[in-house]
Amino acid sequence: MEEADNGCEWDVASDTCELATEQLSSDEETDGKEEDDFKTDDFKDGEVNEFPDLEWLEELYQENDSDGDLAGEPGDERQRTFSATARMFKLRRNLDQLDNFHRQKESALLKAREDLNRLHHSIESLLEQRDVLEREIENQEAAKNSVAVIRLRAQHKNLCYELQREEEIEAHTNNELRQQELELSEVELEVGKFCMLRQEVQEEERVFQILKAQNAVQRLQQEKKNSHTLQLKIQNLKNFDRGNTDMLEKMGTLSEKKTEDGRTNRKVGAKYLKETIRRMQQQEVEREQKKRESMQKRIQAVKLLKSNIEATQENLRVRHSRAKANTLKKERQQKRLKESLQAQGINSTRHIYQQKRDEEMKQKQEEFKERQKARRLEIVEKLVEEEQLVKSRKAHQAPLPKTKTGHKILSPGRIREKLLRYLDSVHPSGTERDTTLRNFSASGSSSESEYQEDIIPKEMQHPSLPDSLEEPEFCGLWDQKFKLPLNEKTTLTPTEVKREPAVVYRKLSTTPKKVGGKQIKGPSFTSKPEVILFKDFEVGETYKKKVILTNISYITNHCKFLGISAQLQDFIMINFQPPGPLSTGMSCEMQITFHPSINEDLEGEVDFASAAGRFSVPVRCTIKRCDLEVDNQFIDFGSHVMGQIISRTITLTNKGALATRFSLDTTKPVPEIHQVQMPSHRSADTQQNQSSASVATRELHNMDHVLDRSSVSRQCQRESQVSAADPRSASVSSSMHAQIAEGFSDSCDIRIGNVREGDIGPFESVKLEIIFSPTVPGEVKLDLYIKFSDPTSCPIAILVKGEGVGLPVWVVEPNIDMKICMFDHLYQEVVTLQSSTSRALKLTFDLWPEMRKHMEIIPRTGFLQAQSSFTAHLKFVPRNTLPQDANKYFDSATSVLEVPMAVQVAGQVQPVIYTVQAIVTSSDLKFGQSEVDFGYCSIYQSVKSSVRLTNMSLLPQEFGFVGLPEFVDVQPNDGFGTLLPQETLEIDIIFSANKAKEYRFHLSCKSGINRVFPLACRAMGVCPTLALSHSLVQFGPTAVGDHSTALLYLTYNQTVRNQSKQRPSAGARLFSFTPPQDSSISITPAAGRLLPGKLITKSMQLLQHDFELPVVQWRCRYGVRPPSVENLTERCLVLVTFKPKLEDRHIKEEALRLLLKAKQTNEEDIKKLLEEEAKREAEPNKGKKLSKSSKMSDFSSKTATPIETQPPDNIDAGGQRFEEARASLLHSFTSRYSEYTIPYFVSDGDPPEEDRQTQPTWSPLNTVYLKLQCPAVQPPLVVVSSNIRNYALDFQQVAVGERVIKRFSVQNISEESLELRSSLLDIYGPFSLLNSLRGIGPGEKHTLVLAFCPTLEKKYCETLEVRCQKMTLAVTLRGEGIVPAITSSHSGGLLDFGYVLEKESTSQVLKLQNSSAVTVGFKAMLYSLSPSKTQGADEKVALLLGGYTDSKIQPVVGTHNYNGLSVFSVQPVEASIAARQSQDVVVTFHPDHPSVNYSDRLTIELVNKTKLCVLDLRGAASAHNMYLNGGDPLTVPIESLLPPLITSQPELAGQSEEMEIPVLVTLRASYSMGTIRPAVRELQIGCIRASKKGSDFLWDNLASLQQRGFSVEPSKGSVEAGSRHTIKLTWTPQSGHKPNEVVQMCVPLTVKGDETRVYNVTLMALVSTHVD
Question: Which of 258, 452, 1150, 1233 is at a distance of 20 to 30 A from 989, taking alpha carbons?
Answer without folding.
Answer: 1233
